[in-house]
Design a protein that fits this description.
Blueprint lengths: L4 E5 L3 H8 L11 H9 L4 E8 L2 E13 L2 E7 L3 E2 L7 H18 L4 E5 L6 H9 L3 E2 L8 E6 L4 H6 L3 H12 L3 E5 L5 H15 L6 H12 L4 E8 L2 E10 L3 E9 L8 H15 L4 E6 L11 H8 L4 E4 L4 E4 L4 H15 L2
Parallel strand pairs: 4-6, 12-13
Antiparallel strand pairs: 1-2, 2-3, 3-4, 3-5, 6-15, 7-15, 8-13, 8-14, 9-10, 10-11, 11-12
Length: 345
């Protein structure tokens, strides 16, 4: 019998998260809490699901982005699809497209932007082309993630690291670097001091303090977020905000000082995070975005090499796709194309 797909809103947090949690490797950008973060930042959101009769087969979180370059419907790292056999992704996407068009017209948006976590294969790319989507001029979220399977024993993980990474962990222990973590909202002040310093030094546009505070508050409410700090002689020299899912832990925000060039706190910090993720029962540690190996002059090449030093594999997603709803989209396209050139991405 042919699939009979229908789209319905989903308001039950448990239904939503139990579905999203079954996906591994996964993304926290489709957790129920991420929608709450977006709402805290003043955005309107929609949570919708596609059903095959009474069975939920896919969910999509979308937010309405109001920007000077144009307003749009944004689906971050989604939709998320059931791994059960028989799900026709092309028909599910078609159902979502219809729903997103309704939302876009209702919200007077100029276009729809989907940032999927479908693997970047010819088959998946053609799914969007057949539905009338075009390539977005920029990417919004990580499209090349570096993921480590942390299920093997710790000894095996250490052996499979690059030599310099393994050395950095052991050296940090010898140097007396202390790692601590916590879930105190007030610790954002400690995080922000290092984070803002790093942003100024490396010349990137940081997330706002309000955004990071909202992210921590929403995910820590269900024990899914923790601060991590590396201290050297009483000074915080490296820090991270980690988001935990059922199957994966995510290195979403991080920063470090370069005042002490002879120490290696960040390697030790990441290792302690990996150990904690294993204790929580996570199967994967997602280092988030990296740049392709061939982009040796990219601003984030050094950070990418640091992440790859722990071992793991790359997971490349289909590039962000846009569906045009208004001629005003042309303005967005030009502005974002110029922005991409300036950022060398």
């Amino acid at each position: 019998m042919a699939n009979m797909y229908t789209v319905k809103p989903i308001t039950d947090k448990n239904v939503w998260d139990s579905f999203v949690d079954q996906i591994a490797p996964s993304t926290f950008l489709h957790a129920y809490a991420w929608g709450e973060v977006e709402e805290d930042m003043g955005k309107k959101i929609y949570r919708v699901g596609v059903f095959d009769k009474e069975h939920l087969v896919s969910v999509a979180l979308v937010s309405i982005v109001r920007a000077r370059r144009g307003s749009f419907v944004l689906c971050p790292h989604g939709p998320v699809f059931s791994k059960k056999p028989g799900v026709d992704i092309s028909k599910v996407l078609a159902a979502f497209k219809g729903e997103f068009k309704k939302i876009g017209k209702q919200e007077k948006c100029d276009f729809i932007r989907i940032c999927p976590t479908l693997l970047n294969t010819p088959e998946n790319r053609v799914l969007f082309k057949n539905l009338g989507f075009i390539e977005a001029p920029i990417h919004v979220y990580s499209e090349l993630s570096w993921i480590l399977d942390i299920q093997p024993p710790a000894e095996r993980l250490l052996i499979e690291m690059k030599k310099n990474t393994r050395y950095g962990i052991r050296k940090a222990e010898r140097d007396g670097i202390i790692i601590r973590s916590g879930a105190n909202a007030a610790d954002i002040e400690l995080f922000w001091k290092v984070y803002s310093d790093t942003a100024a030094r490396q010349k990137f546009v940081p997330y706002s303090k309000q955004y990071i505070a909202a992210e921590f508050a929403r995910f820590s409410a269900t024990n899914r977020a923790r601060w991590y700090f590396a201290e050297y002689k009483g000074e915080i020299v490296s820090t991270a905000l980690i988001i935990f899912g059922k199957n994966s832990a995510f290195y979403h925000h991080g920063a470090s000082l370069h005042a002490h060039s002879s120490i290696t706190p960040s390697e030790f910090l990441q290792w302690r995070i990996i150990e904690d993720a294993k204790l929580r029962g996570c199967k994967f540690y997602n280092f988030w975005g990296v740049v392709p190996d061939e982009k040796t002059n990219h601003p984030w090449t050094g950070l990418s090499n640091f992440k790859k030093g722990f071992g793991g594999f790359a997971e490349e997603y289909v590039h962000a796709k846009d569906y045009i709803l208004s001629p005003k989209y042309a303005i967005t396209y030009v502005i974002e194309t110029i922005r991409r050139w300036k950022r060398r991405t």
